[in-house]
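Students often ask why inverse folding is considered easier than folding. One informal answer: many sequences map to the same fold, so there is more than one right answer. In these notes we will look at a single instance of the problem. The structure comes first.
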């Protein structure tokens, strides 16, 4: 199996890479492990001291749970794996507080975290608008959790597609039309002859429009090669998402192997 990095956009937290010589089950295992098993921090409990805003406690608590928090996987354990057995200790829980008075919009940046490494990813995320005389005060508890329990713990978006395989025959009569119909310029035309633009080939999303224009274009999907796209919601870097998923897969396989022995 070979892996080639295609794009690494650190600013937007996006990565794409090509896995060659694998199979759909393995590609799916990586995807599902990233989405369901890689833990992140999110607010799980909120104790409201004051809330005279227009939003009910339940709605605010739901909004707070969905605020992505920068996650430090080295410093925290999942509550179920912690030595405290889920009772709650500094190794598995983190307190966050907020005190705000209207008028004005309360932003995520106003949340005070006991751990400077675990803070909202997007400081400008609005929580609620307070009118004059309204106030909001709460203490929240964040814990590590997994996307399979609730989407608020999902570290981001991950999907893959089969690598496109396109064959251009010698009898393409209308090269200009074929090139024009492709929305992402997979084809180059020179002197009325058509060829594949290798830089754009992996961007092909297998829509099939080119095969409708010319029967001499053959479109297939590779069963062994996959183009992966990973987009972080900001809690972890895409690299951490993939590496943590691979560690989790390895631990599961080691455990299975030990049990079988
Ligand atoms: S399948 Fe769609 S995206 Fe791919 S080369 Fe053909 S027209 Fe372009
Ligand atoms: Zn604990």
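Output (designed amino acids):
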């Amino acid at each position: 199996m070979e892996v080639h990095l295609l794009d690494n956009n650190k600013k937007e937290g996006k990565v794409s890479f090509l896995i060659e010589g694998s199979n759909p089950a393995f590609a799916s295992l990586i995807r599902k492990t990233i989405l369901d098993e890689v833990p992140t921090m999110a607010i799980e409990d909120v104790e409201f001291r004051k809330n005279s805003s227009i939003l009910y406690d339940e709605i605010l608590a739901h909004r707070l749970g969905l605020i992505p928090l920068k996650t430090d996987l080295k410093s925290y354990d999942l509550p179920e794996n912690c030595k405290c057995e889920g009772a709650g200790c500094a190794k598995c829980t983190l307190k966050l507080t907020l005190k705000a008075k209207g008028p004005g919009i309360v932003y995520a940046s106003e949340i005070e975290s006991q751990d400077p490494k675990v803070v909202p990813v997007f400081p400008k995320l609005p929580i609620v608008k307070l009118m004059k005389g309204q106030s909001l005060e709460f203490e929240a508890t964040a814990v590590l959790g997994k996307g399979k329990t609730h989407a608020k713990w999902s570290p981001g978006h991950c999907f893959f597609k089969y690598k496109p395989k396109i064959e251009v025959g010698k009898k393409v009569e209308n090269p200009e039309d074929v090139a024009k119909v492709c929305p992402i310029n997979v084809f180059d035309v020179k002197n009325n002859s058509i060829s594949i633009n290798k830089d754009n080939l992996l961007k092909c999303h297998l829509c099939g429009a080119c095969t409708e224009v010319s029967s001499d274009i053959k479109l297939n999907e590779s069963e062994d090669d996959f183009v992966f796209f990973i987009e972080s919601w900001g809690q972890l870097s895409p690299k951490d998402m993939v590496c943590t998923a691979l560690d989790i897969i390895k631990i599961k396989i080691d455990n299975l192997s030990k049990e079988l022995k």
